[in-house]
From TrEMBL:
InterPro entries: Flavoprotein-like_sf, RNR_NrdI. It comes from Pseudoclavibacter caeni. It holds the Pfam family Flavodoxin_NdrI. The gene is nrdI. Residues 138-192 are annotated as: Disordered. This is Class Ib ribonucleoside-diphosphate reductase assembly flavoprotein NrdI. GO terms for molecular function: FMN binding. It comes from the Bacteria. Residues 152-184 have a biased composition (Low complexity). Gene3D superfamilies: 3.40.50.360.
Amino acid sequence: MPQTPVYFYSSASGLVRRFATHLERPVFDLADPAVRNSEADGPWVLLTPSYKAGSSHNDTLPKAVLVFLASPVNRRRMVGVIGSGNRNFGVHYQAAARQIAARSGRPMLFEFELSGTPEDVACCREILSDLDAALTARHARPQRAASEQGDPEQAPPEQATPEQAPPEQATPEQATPEQTAPEQGGPGEERR
């Protein structure tokens, strides 16, 4: 079964990177300019830290995440968000990840603190495996229907395309600009 890749950003502390590398699936580091300036070739999940110290001047998303999400193709193909945060931020815990999820109409798949625990990693792996199965099943149904009708050219490609977004998720055509692009903020410093 194809695995949905995770695109992540981690500051020099490496906390998010540590979590991402334990997910046992393709992961791409948005700190790498080649990754940050690329387009995802199918469904993908964002893993981002949240930075919030309680000041509207300090409520920032990582610049690398903003650059990657500036691409309409990347926004359209994102199927969920995973957030890392610090409970010391109180009501602002996971604020950036939740903001991206809300504005894009995509679900928050999982939240963890700092670099997560082994239990967090296991739970997130299970959630991502369920997502993989759901995406595979969703694409298999139209393929089966087309093959039952004897028309193999009607079968969709095995890799998901933006036009195949689940109906419960807003597509860029259905969403307002505020829902599809996170606010532009300055680069954040990971405070852990």
